Amino acid sequence: MTPDEFRRHGREVVDWVADYMERVGELPIASAVKPGEIRARLPQAAPEEPESFDALLRDLDDVVLPGITHWQAPGWFAYFPANASGPSVLAELVAAGLGAQGMLWATSPALTEIEAHVLDWLVDLVGLPQHFKTQGGRGGGVIQMSASDSTHLMHVVARDRAVRGGASIADLVAYGSSQTHSSVERGARVAGFSHVRLVDVDDEFALRPDALR
Fold first, then answer.
1. This prediction's pTM
2. Measuring CA to CA, which residue among 96, 105, 88 is closest to residue 140?
3. Phi, psi (5° rounding) for residue 176?
4. Most exposed: 11, 151, 172, 185, by fewest CB within 10 Å?
5. Is 24 in the same domain as 71?
6. In this structure, what CATH number is given to the domain that contains residue 72?
7. Residue range(s) defining the domain that contains residue 127
8. Can you say whether the dihedral through the CA atoms of 37, 43, 44, 46 is positive or negative?
């Protein structure tokens, strides 16, 4: 794809996404397809010849959308909020176009420094102590890919801090409520916690202190 072709097709994709944003509230929130129905619409073997870009856009409407559960619909209240705004979609386009890797400062200095700076902003926005900052503090955060990653990292940090303080990994216990997301227990197990205890909640789903006894 040449840069000129990318410009032309990119406009078509942006138009498609914008049209989707306008009409997502009119679409059925939950997909009505049966298991295997989407796959049955795909070729049995990988295509040997390229399709036109127009055909790919038609596939979005005819193959992909029927099997989409519309997390962006205004009537979506399941699981958790996962809304994508127009600016965030365009930001993902820029990130994909740059294709930069941020494993280390040297692999893309801008990624490391912008991430650290924005997270320092977050410290001020939520009123955390200044030592949580990367600049001038002894803390510093990194953006995680998902809530599950964040939960696992929390267990790893807690484990390492306890072990440095003289605790044995075999004695560590992770606590959560009976309503805790499954990633909490999985994260604890992967981090090496032998004991995970889920505590009962009251009628308002708050953890019951008496259940800790």
1. 0.75
2. 105
3. -155, 165
4. 11
5. yes
6. 1.20.1340.10
7. 101-132
8. negative
